[in-house]
Structure to design on (584 residues):
């Protein structure tokens, strides 16, 4: 066999295979042309990776590497997970054949990309929140239904009585249950 | 665990009678065929007998057979030896896009020496169109090489027609018959070829024993310089036991080929028909009829070949693949790409090549263990998830 026992063990029983639908970060590397493709999904709570899942299209080494990376990242803080390197993955697996080392590169890369994506989302979230607070301060709001004036923070319109909620896209009040925000046009995503 | 060997294109088992024929030359008959004494002369006699047996297999004269160490060497020998011996007439070579690496890389070396190489495309079955070969000709063309049967997709090429075109243009024609010779009838006279490569490990002979047919009167440059072995064209002490094995394997193949194929073809047909029925998104590669009778090749969508091979191996099944990950070069099969199969699908290449020993039960077993393996790997595949999401929309 061209692979170590550890590699074969992970290949036969890969850990954490799957998709996290409401992931906090998603990273994808590779493409079918080069032979390998990996997707990593992470769920983060209090700066700690509380769940990680992966999907891999690729050879035995690629599958074993993804499985090992997922195992190594599980429960780690973001900072600790960023320290997982291609070398440490290959080492944990008891080595990889020379021509398969690039697979271990992909594994850590995919995880780091998911973390990067998580950080970007965090940043975007923070900026949005800031912008929202500003807009609430500055501008007057109107009920999207009867156009009566609003303070901007009410759960319902004091004039017509419809239930309101904040559009997660632009922060403007919208009618509760509406699919589309009349202000920014965004399809409503529940936060 | 049940062992099912379905990788004859890599190697066939050694036929017991072949082993028996070889053994004396690994033990007591150790002579060098070039020695004048009787020990050497006995070895020489064995080598020449084997030459006759190989000649009979492909219908040529014994002196037209040169022994080599592998199919790759035969291909290298033919390309380089013929091109260099005829370069005064021209420096253009024509190949098909699906040739074995040993042909392609020889041509690459020749390009470095100033030769020009044209590659003829194939259709979706992997078939060369002889008219395309003709179209590729220039006044400089001296050599054409198109394989007889493709090892990866099993397609049998119209070599006779290509040979006719070459003859009419006074161009030399070589065919790589490594996957074909000993498995299907090969007659160099009927085909009209000038050179042909074959290898013993494709038909129950030993590894390291192969041959190159070179038509009488065809100039070819020596491949190994040195002594007078192989009439000065390939120096080096003969691999006597290997040559004896190749000879015996040729004799057996000639007699039993028809019977072997009658037995193996129905099994192969069943596999070819049922595998795409058992699992979705499985495509046959190569021509459905014009193909080696023992060869079934597929592309399995959304997954990669090596992962399949490892899983099959864990179930006792030996097969092969043309995926990037299974090749040392980490490139997807040039054969599949030349046939217009896209990269992602080509990664899912899988080749089953049956041997004489393959039974109906072996095929049943394969059909039984295959679907769960594919299901497991597809569950893991981001490409399959993507496909299901798009399908759901």
């Amino acid at each position: 066999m061209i692979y170590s026992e550890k590699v074969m063990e992970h290949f036969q029983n890969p850990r954490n295979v799957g998709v996290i639908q409401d992931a906090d970060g998603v990273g994808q590397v590779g493409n079918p042309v080069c032979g390998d493709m990996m997707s990593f999904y992470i769920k983060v709570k209090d700066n700690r990776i509380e769940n990680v899942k992966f999907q891999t299209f690729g050879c035995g080494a690629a599958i074993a590497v993804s499985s090992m990376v997922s195992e190594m990242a599980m429960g780690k803080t973001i900072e600790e997970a960023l320290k997982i390197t291609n070398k440490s993955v290959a080492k944990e697996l008891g080595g990889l054949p020379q021509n398969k080392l690039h697979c271990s590169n992909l594994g850590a890369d995919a995880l780091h990309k998911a973390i990067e994506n998580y950080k970007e989302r965090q940043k975007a979230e923070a900026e949005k929140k800031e912008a929202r607070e500003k807009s609430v301060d500055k501008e007057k709001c109107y009920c999207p239904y009867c156009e009566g004036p609003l303070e901007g923070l009410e759960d319902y319109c004091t004039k017509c009585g419809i239930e309101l909620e904040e559009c997660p896209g632009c922060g403007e009040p919208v009618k509760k249950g509406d699919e589309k925000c009349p202000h920014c046009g965004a399809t409503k995503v529940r936060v | 665990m049940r062992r099912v060997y379905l990788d004859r294109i890599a190697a066939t088992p050694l036929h017991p009678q072949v082993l028996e024929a070889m053994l004396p030359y690994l033990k007591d008959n150790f002579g060098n065929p070039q020695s004048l004494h009787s020990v050497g002369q006995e070895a020489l006699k064995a080598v020449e007998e084997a030459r006759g047996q190989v000649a009979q297999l492909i219908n040529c004269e014994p002196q037209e057979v040169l022994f080599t160490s592998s199919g790759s060497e035969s291909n290298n020998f033919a390309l380089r030896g013929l091109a260099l011996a005829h370069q005064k007439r021209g420096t253009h070579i024509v190949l098909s896009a699906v040739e074995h690496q040993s042909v392609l890389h020889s041509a690459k070396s020749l390009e470095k020496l100033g030769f020009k190489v044209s590659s003829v495309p194939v259709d979706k079955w992997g078939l060369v169109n002889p008219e395309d070969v003709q179209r590729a000709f220039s006044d400089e063309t001296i050599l054409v090489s198109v394989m007889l049967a493709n090892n990866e997709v099993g397609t049998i090429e119209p070599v006779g027609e290509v040979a006719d075109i070459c003859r009419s243009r006074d161009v030399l024609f070589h065919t790589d018959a490594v996957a074909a010779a000993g498995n299907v009838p090969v007659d160099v006279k009927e085909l009209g070829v000038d050179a042909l490569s074959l290898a013993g490990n494709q038909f129950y002979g030993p590894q390291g024993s192969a041959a190159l047919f070179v038509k009488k009167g065809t100039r070819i440059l020596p491949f190994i310089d040195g002594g007078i072995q192989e009439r000065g064209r390939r120096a080096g002490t003969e691999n006597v036991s290997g040559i004896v094995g190749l000879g015996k394997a040729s004799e057996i193949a000639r007699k039993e080929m028809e019977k072997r194929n009658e037995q193996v073809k129905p099994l192969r047909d069943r596999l070819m028909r049922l595998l795409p029925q058992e699992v979705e998104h499985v495509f046959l590669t190569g021509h459905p009829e014009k193909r080696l009778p023992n060869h079934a090749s597929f592309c399995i969508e959304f997954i990669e070949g090596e992962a399949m091979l490892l899983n099959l191996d864990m179930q006792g099944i030996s097969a092969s693949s043309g995926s990037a990950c299974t090749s040392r070069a980490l490139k997807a099969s040039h054969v599949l790409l030349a046939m217009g199969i896209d990269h992602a699908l080509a990664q899912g290449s899988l080749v089953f090549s049956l041997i004489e020993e393959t039974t109906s039960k072996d095929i049943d077993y394969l059909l039984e263990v295959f679907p769960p393996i594919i299901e497991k790997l597809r569950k893991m595949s981001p490409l399959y998830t993507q496909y299901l999401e798009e399908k759901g929309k």
Observations:
- The longest strand of chain B covers residues 295-300.
- Chain B is about 45% helix and 15% strand.
- The longest helix of chain B spans residues 240-278.
- The interface with chain A takes residues 302-307, 310, 314, 323-326, 328, 330, 332, 343-344, 347, 379-383, 385 of chain B (CB under 8 Å).
